[in-house]
From TrEMBL:
InterPro entries found in the cross-reference section: Cys/Met-Metab_PyrdxlP-dep_enz, Cys_met_metab_PP, PyrdxlP-dep_Trfase, PyrdxlP-dep_Trfase_major, PyrdxlP-dep_Trfase_small
Protein family (similarity comment): Belongs to the trans-sulfuration enzymes family.
Protein name, per record: Trans-sulfuration enzyme family protein
Region Disordered: start-end pairs: 1-32
Keywords: Pyridoxal phosphate
């Protein structure tokens, strides 16, 4: 019989790994959880030396998320810090292909880099595989979101990754919306996976953190070096909370996804909506009202749903994305992004329907 201490991502299910990985040893009186280690420096002669280079609390989180993504993980201070470190891998003047509908922080990083002559960005329709692969021919990096934020378009990660690799380009996938429980980009040919751990991974709207996972030793070393040099490190308490949230990701996501699918079924022919967007999985839904004014009024009438810009928490939130000047102009003014939480689906639908019907 297999020794239960030998659990690995290859011999247990992902939901089991999320709960059991990164635990202390089974010696008597050892805690079940790795504690928050508050240390800025360590006694010399070991592997850590200084707090900017490592922390045992980080290690527990990185082992767990890395195993779920089938790679090696690095924790970062925020999702945007993880994005910046990844883009910093590229040489001066390199071309990056990215979705025209992306997280505004990603687009902001690319725009800032272009303004300084640091990088060149070409924004594409990520769902048009032929156009993406054509754009990748002279690129150094192809950045993918799938589903995209907030349009919820899907990319053919395997085909795009293969084309990018043939062109000598790196493929990066922002897997924040799907999580490794619904999509594993490294297994589809991607080189790097980026997460805003602020969202579904931590899942309780109390942590700002990011993460990067890669299967490449050289990319891992390069990214770890950038984290240390730039000081983009998370605090031990934040990492502890993110790991605690990750333990319950399987059950939170199962509940939220089930509710999202039911809401989509009910909203699909709602007379107040012009469109309902859902990629078929996950807990993010985008609905489109006739105008920005109608969308704002609808949001003001909701009760259970919280108007907030973040997502992926246990509470359901919603936001009209075009209220941000940085949002892509091709996103409809009346698009409202819903992040479905774990409340009772009947209550969630009743709140939406009441607010929509009152208009």
């Amino acid at each position: 019989m297999r020794n239960p201490h030998d659990a690995s991502p290859s011999n247990v299910h992902p939901d089991t790994w999320a709960v059991t990985a990164g635990r202390p040893s089974r010696e008597p009186d050892e805690p079940l959880n790795v504690p928050v280690l508050l240390a800025s420096t360590y006694t010399a002669g070991g592997d850590l030396e200084y707090g900017r280079y490592g922390n045992p609390t980080w290690t527990a989180f990185e082992e767990t998320l890395g195993g779920l993504e089938d790679g090696r993980c690095l924790a970062f201070a925020s999702g945007i810090a993880a994005i910046a470190a990844t883009l910093d891998l590229l040489p001066h003047g390199a071309k990056v292909v990215a979705p025209r509908h992306s997280y505004t922080g990603t687009i902001g990083q690319l725009n800032h880099a272009e303004e300084r002559g640091r990088l060149r960005a070409e924004l594409v329709d990520i769902g048009d595989t032929a156009s993406v692969t054509a754009a990748a021919a002279d690129a150094a990096m192809v950045w993918i979101e799938s589903p995209t934020n907030p349009a919820l378009e899907l990319a053919d990660i395997a085909a795009i990754s293969a084309a990018a690799r043939a062109a000598g380009a790196l493929t990066v996938v922002d897997n924040t919306f799907a999580t490794p429980l619904l999509q594993r980009p490294l297994g589809l040919g991607a080189d790097i996976v980026v997460h805003s751990a602020t969202k579904f991974i931590s899942g309780h709207s109390d942590v700002v953190m990011g993460a990067i996972v890669t299967g490449s030793g050289s990319l891992y070393d390069g990214l770890k070096k950038r984290r240390s040099l730039n000081g983009a490190i998370p605090g031990p308490l934040e990492v502890f909370l993110a790991l605690r949230g990750l333990r319950t990701l399987p059950v939170r996501l199962e509940r939220a996804q089930s509710s999202a699918k039911e809401l989509v079924r009910r909203l699909d022919d709602h007379p107040a909506l012009t469109e309902v967007r859902y990629p078929g999985f996950g807990a993010i839904v985008s609905i489109v009202l006739p105008s920005g004014e109608a969308a704002d009024a609808f949001i003001d009438r909701t009760g259970l749903w919280r108007h907030a810009t973040s997502l992926g928490g246990v509470e359901s939130t919603l936001e009209r994305r075009r209220r941000w000047a940085a949002e892509a102009p091709t996103i409809p003014e009346g698009l409202v992004r819903l992040s479905v939480g774990i409340e009772n689906v009947e209550d969630l639908y009743r709140d939406l329907d009441t607010a929509l019907s009152a208009g």
